[in-house]
Amino acid sequence: MELYLPPKGLKFRIQNYRSKWAIFSRFSPDPQFFHFTSSDEFKDQYWTLIPGTGKHSGYFRIENCVTKQAIYSRFSQEPKFFTYTSSEFDDQYWTFVPGTGKRSGYFRIENYVTKWAIFSRFSQEPQLSHYISKDQYDDQYWSFIFEDMIIESVDYKIYVGKIQSTKNVVLMRQSLTNDTDGEQMLSFKVDESVKHTSTFEYLGGFTVKVGAKFKAEIPIIEETGLNIEATTGDHIWSFGNSTESVKKYTAELSVKALPRTKIIVEATIKKSVLNVPFVMHLKSKETGIKVDTYGTYSGYFKSNLGDLIVHTFVLINQFV
User: Fold this and answer.
1) Same domain as 207, residue 135
2) Of 151, 270, 271, 286, whose CB count within 10 A is highest?
3) How many CA atoms within 13 Å lie on the side-chain side of 88?
C-alpha cells in the first residue's frame, strides 16, 4: 500500500507504533518538546507538512500548528534533536520511509542531514529522540492521525464497474390448490425482507478512518447497465466495514391453475455481486482543505420487485 502524505495545511498527530504516544511542541510549561498520550484535545500535538523544493524535493518540514516551530536533527551542536523556527534549514527536512509487513501503513521519519530517525519509547532514557534509522526498531515507526474530516460526496466510476456474478435467489415458496372443475386464477402475496451488504474498501489517497460514518448513494443494475440508486442517499454507511441495509419486497400476484391441481409457486429475484471504483471527497472541518480517497465499492445487489420471477411447479393433477 502506497504511503499517503497529507497536503500542506492539513493537520495531523504523529502517533508512535510502539508507545502509541504522540509528539507535541509548546512554549510552556516544560518539557517544550516531548511525547504524550495521543488525543485530539491537545492542540499542541497537531502538525502540518511543508514540502521542500530544489535539493529538498521529496523532503518535508514537520511544523507544529501551535508554535510554528519545526523538528530538526543534527550532530553539530546541542540540542541535537529539538524544534526551532520553521525555515529553510537543511536539518529541518525529513523523508518518510514506508514500513512493510506488520508495519504496513506506518513509516520511519528520517532526517535529510543526519539520516537518523525519530523514536518514542518508555523502556529507557531518552524516551523521545533520534537514532540511526533501521527497519528493525518498532519504536521508530509512526502513523498520521488526521484532524476531523467531513465526507462530502462519493463519485463512482460506473463505466469501469463490473458485475462479478449473478444468480437467482428464492424469495418465497408457497403451495396453492385448485380443487374445482375449472381453471382458476389463484392469488398469493409476497411480503419478504432481504438484507443487502455494502462495503467501501480503501485503495489509496487520504486514509479514511475505519468505521467513519457517511451518507451516499450506491450502484445498482438497470436494463442499460450499472447506475446509481438515488433512494439510498439517506442510508448511513461505515467506511471499511460491511454495512447491512434491508430491502422489503411486497406484492399481490396471481397464477393460472388447471382443474383439480396443486401447484407450488416460487418467487425469485436476481442477486448480483458488484465491484465499482469510487473517489470519495472529504474536507477538513476546521480549515476546509479538501482531499480525496480512492477505493472500491463492493455490494450485493438484489433486483427490484418489478423484476420478480415466478416459477410454477405442478405437483398433483387429479381429475375426478
Assistant:
1) no
2) 151
3) 5
Which domain CATH number covers 23?
A: 2.80.10.50
Nearest to 201 by CA among 261, 291, 274, 110: 274
Q: How far apart are CA 299 and CA 296, in angstroms?
A: 10
The DSSP output letter for 79 is S
Asked whether 282 and 292 are in contact (CB, 8 A), the reply is yes
- Sign of the C-alpha dihedral computed for residues 115, 121, 126 and 129 taken in this order: positive
Under DSSP, the state recorded for 305 is: G
**129 in a structural domain:** yes
* Burial of 81: CB neighbours in 10 Å, binned 0-12, 13-18, 19+: buried
Q: Is residue 137's pLDDT more than 90? A: yes
Q: How much of the chain is helix, strand and coil, in % rounded to 5?
A: 10, 60, 35
Q: What are phi and psi of 160, to 5 degrees?
A: -115, 5
Q: What is the C-alpha to C-alpha distance for residues 140 and 131, in angstroms, rounded to an integer?
A: 9
Q: By residue range, what is the domain housing residue 37?
A: 12-147
Residue that wins the pLDDT comparison between 34 and 255: 34
- How far apart (Å, rounded) are the C-alpha atoms in residues 196 and 220? 12
Rg (CA), the chain: 30
Last residue of a domain, one of 147, 182, 197: 147
206 backbone dihedrals φ, ψ, rounded to 5°: -55, 135
Query: pTM of this prediction?
Result: 0.84
CA distances from 98 to 58, 70, 101 (A): 14, 21, 10
